[in-house]
Amino acid sequence: MNQGFTVWLTGLSGAGKSTIAERLGPELTARGRTVEVLDGDEVRTHLSKGLGFSREDRDINIGRISFVASLLVKHGAAVITAAISPYALARAEARQRIGSEQFVEVYVRCSLNELTRRDVKGLYAKAIAGELQHFTGVSDPYEAPENPDVVVDSELEAVEESVTKILAELERRGYIEAGAAVAS
Q1: pLDDT of 90-140, one tens digit each?
Q2: 3-state SS of the chain: helix, strand, coil percent to 5?
Q3: Which residues does the annotation mark as catalytic?
Q4: What is the pTM of this model?
């Protein structure tokens, strides 16, 4: 049970990646794991400050996240990343860097209509109106995973259901022992 691993949450802005990470972390801690969360917004503030939103800058950001995750995994940590990570190639490179067996790709799916409805800052509306450039899923591409290890649908599922799906995959892989139901 000391094998490190990374749960790589990918999906559009506002899909629920950070919320899932916030709920998943304590569940893993309760099962005896040392947990580190690498949230995309926090990484951009502290580790990738100054990077923009070009494809090159986004890839550099994902490269930095995967580098840190790989170091933590080598030391037995359970790492949770919550980053849009829009490009399939950058996610494949992250999987390779961390190790394919230690990489659990979770696609946090949510429709653009629902994301626009949820968006209290109005960023999707601005992007759709052309007022905001380089917005993933609107004016910049998001390459959804073709074969993710887990798919959760934040539009149709409660957070607890999504966390339960991820925990089941981690149990299946032997990273955690079967535990109690997810607390709501």
Answers
A1: 999 999 999 999 999 999 999 999 999 999 889 999 999 999 888 999 999
A2: 45, 15, 40
A3: 85
A4: 0.92
